[in-house]
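Summary of Year 1 activities. Much of the first year was spent building the evaluation harness for sequence design. The harness presents a backbone, in tokenized form, and records the residue chosen at every position. We chose the following record to illustrate the format because it has been used consistently in internal testing since the harness was completed.
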């Protein structure tokens, strides 16, 4: 299913844990549209126009103030590519009184519109982003990968067999009602774990077409 969706599903950019980026050399009040492919696996899917402006959101996990050696995403003094837009370089990190990073002040290179540089340089990382002024708040409910769910089912079946009960193919209900299928103690643990992961709701910021 994942392979099928990868080939056929249209892409949209979203940020689950937003971190603000301000492009200090981008004109205030200016908004432009950049063209983004709907599916990199299928050029026939066409493109869409996405608003780009001075203030953006990026994923918080795409920035580290003191990155390890193999972290290639945004860091102080480092240049990265914004998908289908420009190269940006982090110049300043703004923190709140508790030391939490709340804003990155960056510069952009206007010669790199579309994601390429005239001099041929190529950053090692490309980040997704959304315009702060044009994005919509949304809910995200990440699903546990199928292989982890399968392991949980197999573990539940093993616990039933060890308890001496007759075991049919165990099934986990989508909202954590697993106890009646896999045995009281094991079912409650697996069900509760599923509730904390699969049905957890995150606030995200997404760009709609």
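For this record, the design step produced the sequence shown next.
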């Amino acid at each position: 299913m994942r392979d099928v969706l990868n080939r056929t599903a249209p892409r949209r950019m979203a940020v689950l844990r937003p971190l603000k980026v301000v492009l200090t050399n981008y004109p205030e009040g200016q908004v432009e549209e950049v063209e983004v492919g709907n599916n990199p696996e299928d050029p026939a899917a066409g493109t869409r126009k996405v608003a780009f402006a001075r203030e953006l959101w990026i994923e918080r996990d795409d920035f580290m103030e003191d990155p390890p050696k193999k972290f290639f995403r945004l860091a102080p003094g480092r240049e990265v590519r914004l998908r289908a837009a420009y190269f940006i370089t982090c110049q300043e990190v703004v923190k709140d009184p508790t030391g939490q990073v709340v804003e990155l002040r960056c510069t952009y290179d206007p010669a790199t519109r579309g994601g390429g540089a005239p001099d041929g340089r190529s950053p090692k990382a490309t980040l997704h982003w959304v315009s702060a002024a044009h994005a919509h708040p949304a809910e995200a409910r990440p699903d546990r990968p199928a292989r982890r769910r399968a392991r949980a089912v197999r573990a539940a079946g093993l616990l039933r067999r060890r308890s001496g009960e007759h075991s049919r193919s165990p099934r986990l209900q989508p909202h954590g009602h697993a106890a009646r299928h896999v045995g009281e103690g094991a079912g409650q643990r697996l069900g509760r774990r599923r509730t904390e992961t699969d049905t957890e709701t995150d606030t995200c910021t997404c760009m709609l077409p």
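The two ends are 24 Å apart (CA to CA). Quantitative recovery figures across the full test set are reported in Table 2.
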